[in-house]
Amino acid sequence: MISSMTDGASRPTAGALRLIESRSEIPESVSVGAYLGAVGEHCPFLDGSRSRGLTGWTVYRIASGANRYAVEAELFYAGVQAAERLRPLMGLRHGQLRCENLVLLGDVVDNSHQELLAWPHWGLKNLYSEVGVMFGKFAKGVVETDRFGRCIPSPPFTFLTVRASVRRLDPGFLRATPLLASSLAEADDDGRDVFREIPCEWEAVKAWASSLPQPQQH
Q1: Could you tell me which residues come within 8 angstroms of residue 186 by beta carbon, excluding any fewer than 6 positions away?
Q2: CB–CB of 2/84 below 8 Å?
Q3: Where are the beta strands (DSSP E) in the chain?
């Protein structure tokens, strides 16, 4: 596992995201209760995770004047930190119910939240599939569908979710990316460094992610 690649002092993009609220089960800076109540029927594990205090929220705000590249980089690093905190806990009791959510507030001129999430989510999902960590992205106001094709209520805020994968279910979410689905189905976390073959800097990660087969259109 990694420990130091997200040190802000070594990143020119550090400061693009401001920490508004450290991890909490019930954040004060955003309202999550009504939304989670509405989406509970689409996620069979949500109620169990919340009732055991295993769903966490960390809230960030985009700094004034930050550009898209810097926000992408910092969101990616925040995702790495969340994944690395999660990995040693997944094997514990109820570890499969653990879920970390990274909320993104604020805006970048001429860039939607969907655009800001796209590359960090794609890079994180591909890096961590082999160790059984699943990432999801939910942009404010955007309607997604669940694995049965039902519409999921749009979120009142934008967030990335980081959780332990469910091998019997999650590959079904990735039909548009069969190689990624296969990697997730065969995932095994042996403590490996997911950056063993590529540099951990965002520029290199984004270039690597750009070279991967893109989702198939159906």
Answers
A1: 130
A2: yes
A3: 17-24, 55-62, 99-105, 133-138, 144-145, 151-152, 158-164
CA distance 57 to 55: 7
CB of 21 closer than 8 Å to CB of 59: yes
Query: How far does CA 98 lie from the centroid of its chain?
Result: 13
Q: What is the pLDDT of residues 52-87, one digit of tens each?
A: 999 999 999 999 999 999 999 999 999 999 999 999
| Of the candidates 11, 38, 12, 17, the residue with the CA atom closest to the CA atom of residue 155 | 38
Is 0.85 surpassed by the pTM of this model? yes
3-state secondary structure 56-73: EEEEEEECCCCCHHHHHH
CA distance linking residue 159 with residue 147, whole number of Å = 19
